């Protein structure tokens, strides 16, 4: 696709076509950098995020050892989504089947939260890692990963905006600053799933229709991933568009929670939410008074 089709940043691809295939697929993965490390050691710096460094000392590996480094950055706004936790980039070292003969030092940027912090709550910086869990013999499943909190037996050294620690084998490493350290591994699974979810740009459009006596109104909330606002049935059945959002990021298969504020109150007291699924109609109906 042409550069003009990338909007508003290179995280999104806009596809224009005159054909109508059954599906489109944009396939990508976290960039893998390959390094050849000799017996004299090596200082590895990520081209994706230069503040991520791996210092392999002399004698830690055999000559000609191939190592790979993957860095999954965290969007600058990601840590605003959950006030109770902040996360660093995810750093993966491979191959996982080697053991370092000497400790290897890894440096990762500390989690950064750009919102307002609460001075009365002191978060705890935790170091998590996961090793690939081998699939059962004969199974077509890919290896699964299980996060472990290794802060207790892996000392962290924080200097400025970075944290360093030593490891004895490659794995996937992640720094999480949390106010609930006892539940950090469970939180990590949920946050990592969100971090790896496919993002889409969408608009929220709200239609309304007053009841005959004017005491209630029916609202229809749409999450629309194209520009065709006029194709909805509501525009032909007496509903009026009353609000439209700017482009916002939503994630496939994730719930979107909605609240009514001000002088509007839903008739039903159940929590309002809709699950977003790409290339489907995403609609929520609610009656308010």
Automatic annotation (TrEMBL):
Its main location: cytoplasm. It is found in: Cytoplasm; Membrane. One of its GO terms (cellular component) is membrane. Pfam families: UPA_2 (PF17809), ZU5 (PF00791). Residues 31-179 form the ZU5 domain. It comes from the Eukaryota. Keywords: ANK repeat, Cytoplasm, Membrane, Repeat. This is ZU5 domain-containing protein. It comes from Nematostella vectensis.
